[in-house]
Specification:
The chain is an alpha/beta fold and 723 residues long. Helices cover 35% and strands 21% of the residues. The protein has 3 domains: 202 residues, 2-Layer Sandwich (Endonuclease, Chain A), CATH 3.30.870.10; 300 residues, polyphosphate kinase like, CATH 3.30.1840.10; 182 residues, Endonuclease Chain A (Endonuclease, Chain A), CATH 3.30.870.10. The longest helix is centred in the first third of the chain and has 33 residues.
Length: 723
């Protein structure tokens, strides 16, 4: 392999190669050149909802997208809305790239979220539920059942549900109970038959029980009925309040602030501080109250008062509330109602050289760099096999790896433990501040430490988000580096549904770069020289701005220029402004974004040469790719960083430059497919509207990118197709 960065030039030394773009001499950019990031996120979740509304998709996949929408929105409120409210209450500055008052931003979010939740509920009631019924999957109510079904469910209730219920009264002797975040609850008003006094009680719907209860055990998967757990409980309240008259019952749910704030520089023990903060998270202030649309004003008034929540934060919805419960239905074993089964292939370079033998990953990687594309190509037979082979190989002396999110029974962690127990030097950088995975990562960190792994937690004030693994192997009396740099987590479970890229390489320079970076993360080294990497927070933003400036200058001088970027989020103002200036210089700019995009494309005098596309489907588009024409010397990077302030300024991120011609061609081919007008996608307009393009003028479906890649990569990996 030829590395086009020579020994005197490093990826962090762009100051020596490129002059900054002359911003002062450029036309002033308009003030209202950014889209609001929170509203852009809600627009992303609307695209998820549009998949649920699409009758061409298998119905259980549509149910799954409804559940994804609900789960996404929960996290949005728990983190983004909660963070905005906290900063307003405490008087902290509120980030806004649109120049509006924070209270106006919250008002706009509330209006958009109300509209989306109502549309979400309607999609279930009017579209997905009837489609499920047509397929033989019926979600029914108690009133629709016959006496035989009710008798069976009464028995189920008394044996499986009643023993775990805990009704809590509210009266002078019983204060209003704490309502845990995201728990589903029944508000119950009862009348004491002896005194005539009305009382309020709360019944929590047990989260450990199935949300959808099968009506009759004799029903087959082809014709089955379910009733929601809360409906079943509501129709047995007399068992919970004997001697009381049940006047009314309603369903409600509270979302709380679950954002975690840790002042790392004020604590000596990060794990203990984080555990304390996780305990506090459970008692964060309410930020959203969802109630069934039939709730009376007396009950609603009580909840609003006791929870200290505003009317703007109340969402009235038709039951069932919390459609994230549809994840359970979406797992029903009806293959014809799901996407066709896809089995990942083994990357052609990693196939065994002889039948019935295990592939030698080190031998394969030493011959040629390997570019992996998950989930089309198997994580288990590539990254996982690489680390497992490293753990068992007597010639391997050391393994160093970052862990941001991993699965509960991770073979990756087990491989590190096996390596340490066999006497190898093993370093694991565990990011215990990974949101909502904090407790799991603390547990893994302690398990790794007990096995003898050197566990570190990164740099104070920064999250370590880069996806890196480095193996040091002794070969013929010399040490050789084998490296993996990816765009996604070392998580075998999410690797089946997240689209990601990864580079396996034996390139010595990449290995030296990673050695220096790991030394910086685990010790006190401050390393500024990387030849194949761009690393945040010190150099990544600067390096990308220099690359954009180089394309801008090339266009101004009449030379070929092009920028293509694929990210999850495009928010950073400095990057966006640089892209605007590149567009004004005539550079064709293509942005392929999954989620948030604050850039306004196609605006006269600002961004005529910028296109923004979004693709959503059965897999979560997760890879980050940065491609620049480079005046004939393509500069193409993959890595972990999105274009957001936190990624560029408050995280350790790493991009690696691809140099193999085959890899460069593959990346450009993926861009060509995604941006083709015959590919189904959403197009962003300058006013922030996303327009779905899924059919041609004749109404025929456009090509599905992920289906195309499945077929292309499967064909490439067949025997006889090895390159």
């Amino acid at each position: 392999m030829t590395d086009t960065l020579d020994d005197d030039r490093t990826a962090s030394d762009f100051d020596d190669d490129f002059e900054p773009f002359d911003v002062e001499g450029a036309p002033e950019l308009p003030a209202e050149r950014y889209l609001d990031r929170e509203l852009s996120w809600l627009a992303f979740n609307q695209r998820v909802l549009e998949l649920a509304e699409d009758p061409r998709l298998p119905v259980l996949e549509r149910a799954n997208f409804l559940a994804i929408f609900a789960s996404n929105l929960d996290e949005f409120f728990m983190v983004r809305v909660a963070g905005l409210k906290r900063r307003i209450v405490t008087g902290l500055a509120v980030p806004s790239n649109v120049g509006r008052a924070p209270t106006d931003v919250l008002g706009d979010i509330s209006r958009a979220a109300h509209e989306l939740q109502e549309r979400h509920a309607a999609a279930y009631q009017e579209l997905v539920r009837p489609a499920l019924a047509e397929a033989g999957i019926h979600v029914v109510t108690w009133s629709e059942l016959g006496e035989a079904e009710r008798a069976h469910l009464r028995g189920y209730f008394s044996q499986q549900i009643f023993p775990v219920l805990m009704p809590l009264a509210v009266d002078p002797a019983h204060p209003f109970p704490y309502i845990s975040g995201l728990s589903l609850n029944l508000s119950v008003r009862v009348r004491n038959s002896r005194t005539g006094r009305q009382e309020f009680a709360r019944v929590k719907v047990p989260q450990m029980l199935p949300r959808f209860v099968q009506v009759s055990p004799g029903e087959t998967a082809d014709a089955v009925r379910y009733i929601t757990l809360e409906d079943l409980i509501a129709n047995h309240l007399g068992d919970l309040f004997p001697g009381m008259e049940i006047l009314a019952h309603h369903v409600f749910r509270v979302t709380r602030n679950e954002d975690v704030e840790i002042e790392e520089d004020e604590t000596e023990n990060l794990i203990k501080a984080l555990e304390k903060e996780l305990l506090r998270r459970r008692f964060g202030p309410p930020i959203r109250l969802e109630v069934s649309d039939d709730m009376d004003e007396v009950t609603l008034g009580l909840l609003v008062r006791e929870l200290d929540i505003s009317v703007q934060e109340v969402f009235r919805l038709p039951p069932p509330i919390d459609l994230a419960g549809l994840f359970d239905l979406a797992r029903i074993d009806r293959p014809e109602l799901h996407y066709p089964t896809h089995v990942p292939t083994t990357n052609a370079q990693l196939l065994p050289t002889e039948p019935n033998r295990t592939a030698d990953i080190f031998e394969a990687v030493s011959r040629k760099d390997v570019l992996l594309h998950h989930p089309y190509e198997s994580f288990a037979t590539s990254v996982q096999a690489f680390l497992e082979q490293a753990a068992s190989d007597p010639n391997v002396l050391a393994i160093k790896q970052t862990l941001y999110r991993t699965s509960g029974d991770s073979p990756i962690v087990e491989a590190l433990i096996d390596a340490a127990e066999s006497g190898k030097q093993v370093l694991a950088l565990v990011e215990i501040k990974a949101r909502f995975d904090e407790q799991a990562n603390i547990s893994w960190a302690r398990k790794l430490e007990k096995a003898g792994v050197h566990v570190v937690y990164g740099l104070v004030g920064l999250k370590t988000h880069c996806k890196l693994a480095l193996v040091i192997r002794q070969e013929r009396g010399q040490l050789r580096h084998y490296s993996h740099i990816g765009t996604g987590n070392y998580n075998p479970k999410t690797s089946r549904i997240y689209e990601d890229l990864g580079l396996l390489t034996a390139d010595d320079q990449v290995g030296k770069d990673l050695t220096r970076l790991f030394n910086e993360l685990s010790g006190y080294a401050i390393e500024k020289k990387f030849k194949r990497l761009l690393v945040a927070p010190l150099h990544l933003r600067k390096g990308l701005l220099k690359l954009i400036a180089a394309e801008t200058r090339a266009a101004e001088e009449g030379r070929p220029a092009r920028i293509r970027i694929k990210v999850n989020s495009m928010v950073d103002e400095a990057i966006i402004d640089a892209l605007y200036r590149a567009s004004n210089a005539g550079v064709p700019v293509d942005i392929w974004v999954r989620g948030i995009c604050s850039l306004r494309p196609g605006v006269a005098g600002l961004s005529e040469n910028i296109r923004v596309r979004s693709i959503l489907g059965r897999y979560l588009e997760h890879s980050r790719v940065f491609s620049f024409a480079g005046d004939g010397d393509p500069q193409v990077y993959i890595g972990s960083a999105d274009m957001m302030h936190r990624n560029l300024d408050r995280r350790v991120e790493a991009l690696v430059r691809l140099t193999d011609p085959d890899h460069l061609a593959e990346v450009e081919s993926n861009f060509d497919r995604a941006l083709d007008e015959r590919t189904s996608s959403w197009h962003l307009t300058g006013d922030g509207t996303w327009v779905r393009h899924s059919t041609d003028d004749a109404g025929h479906p456009l090509d599905d990118l992920q289906d195309q890649l499945m077929q292309h990569i499967a064909h490439r990996a067949r025997p006889g197709k090895r390159r």
